[in-house]
Design brief:
The protein is an alpha/beta fold. The chain has a single domain, classed as Rossmann fold, CATH 3.40.50.150. The chain has six helices and nine strands. The chain binds S-adenosylmethionine (SAM). S-adenosylmethionine binds next to helix 1.
């Protein structure tokens, strides 16, 4: 199977980083269910004793910044150097690293919590178990995990970015039970699932999970 998805995703987000950053600017202000999910995640991190939290596939870093505002020691990782440049520009006090969730450059058990918001959507089915294995590897025992994604059962291809430039990226829409099944296979316990906008055209979901103790 071709693995150009990784380089295609990186180059697409490099091309579209300014347009994407503008599109999502202020997004959380109009998303109460996402804000509530992030507040709950922050509480779980605090309950776990605090410590570093990785926002994997952080894009322009607004979720990383929101977690920081909630008292979480959050840092961001993204495969796109252009996204990371925007995240550093917009959140100069925070740490952002270029990296891929398929091979996280983090020591085993080195983060208290891990969040992946609408970034696993670009990982094809065959690579998801490896990515969730990475999440488990870097999480401290019993650490909280929060995954957000598009709900559905289809793959959508995008060939034009928000500024009209050509890109080449797939987004995989998945039923929550499929994500939950992969997480359980990786050793996680599912603690909660929330479907947001089930009656809308493009529902989303967040799954709260916990690594093995
Ligand atoms: C839809 S955006 C989501 C960004 C942000 N988390 C948000 O909620 O707005 C997907 C992000 O995941 C990043 N990404 C995709 N594949 C990745 C990978 N293998 N490793 C790290 N980041 C990745 C992209 O570069 C992009 O910034």
């Amino acid at each position: 199977m071709s693995d150009t998805w990784l380089s295609d995703t990186r180059s697409s987000y490099d091309t579209d980083a300014p347009g994407y950053a503008e599109k999502v600017r202020g997004l959380l202000g109009g998303r109460p269910y996402l804000r509530a999910s992030l507040a709950l995640f922050a509480e779980l991190v605090h309950d776990a004793g605090g410590g570093p939290v990785a926002d994997v596939g952080c894009g322009p870093g607004y979720v990383t910044g929101h977690l920081h505002d909630l008292g979480v020691d959050a840092f961001g990782i993204d495969i796109s150097p252009e996204m990371i440049a925007i995240a550093r520009r917009d959140h100069p006090g925070l740490r952002f690293d270029v990296g891929t969730m398929t091979a996280l450059d983090l020591a085993d058990g080195s983060v208290t919590g891990l969040l992946a918001f609408w970034s696993v959507i670009h990982v094809p089915d065959h690579a998801v178990p490896g990515v969730f294995g990475q999440f488990r590897r870097v999480l401290r025992p019993g650490g909280p995990l929060l995954v957000g994604f598009h709900v559905g059962d289809e793959t959508r291809h995008t060939s034009e970015g928000y500024t009209g430039r050509p890109i080449n990226v797939d987004s995989h829409h998945r039923p929550p039970r499929k994500i939950a099944g992969w997480l359980r296979d990786a050793g996680f316990t599912i603690e909660a699932e929330l479907v947001i906008g089930p009656d809308e055209d493009g529902p989303g979901a967040v799954v709260f999970a916990r690594g093995p103790a």
